[in-house]
Amino acid sequence: MEEYNDGRISCDANALRIRMYYLPFGTKVIKYHSIRGVRRFDMTPLRGQWRIWGTGNLKYWANLDPKRPSKNVGLLLDVGKFVHPFITPDDAGAVESIIRERAKLGPDEGTTMKSPFV
What we know:
5-stranded mixed sheet, 1 helix, 4-stranded antiparallel sheet, single chain
């Protein structure tokens, strides 16, 4: 049973699914136990908001999201690898809460960081 699904990002009991992550638009499945951290950030036009898909910085990867330019908040996931998934769910707060609960990360510190260059 899914707890969250906006068509691109979905959360169920076992994993987070990021649709349109890989070419040709494959889904990245991340088990909650492999998520080491999640950080919320405010996007700007030069820092992620206009990045529809991919990256300008090899440390981050954004799934295809044509609605990203109309969004202001994103999430950066630490999955213990060099590349960190950069996601912009329609309801970032709900997805962040689900990830924190399922990955046992504890509550948000209440700080929103500056967006990375993506």
